[in-house]
Amino acid sequence: AINLVNEGKVNLKELVSDVLPLSYWKEGFRRAKKKNSIKIVLQPDK
């Protein structure tokens, strides 16, 4: 799978529906429950 990503055959951006700061974790979980959500990424706050 990693080789496919490295070769550009799989676009990971299409697999992530939202990127939120970690402090918005409640909102992230709310969005994850929606049927149109694919994957939510929570990033550490800066």
Characterise the protein shown here.
The chain has 46 residues and is an alpha+beta fold. It has a domain at 12-43. Helices cover 28% and strands 17% of the residues. It contains two helices and two strands. The chain has helices at 2-6, 25-32; strands spanning 18-21, 40-43. Strands 1-2 form a two-stranded parallel ribbon. The N and C termini lie far apart (30 Å). The model has no long low-confidence stretch (mean pLDDT 90).
SSE layout and pairings?
Blueprint: H1 2-6, E1 18-21, H2 25-32, E2 40-43
Parallel strand pairs: 1-2
Low-confidence stretches: none
Total count of strands? 2
Mean pLDDT: 90
* Order of the strands making up the biggest sheet: 1-2
**Derived structural class:** alpha+beta
How would you summarize this macromolecular structure in one to three sentences?
The protein has 2 helices and 2 strands, in the order αβαβ. With 46 residues, the protein is an alpha+beta fold.
Which structural traits does this protein have?
single chain, two-stranded parallel ribbon, 17% strand, 46 residues, 2 helices, alpha+beta, Alcohol dehydrogenase-like C-terminal domain-containing protein
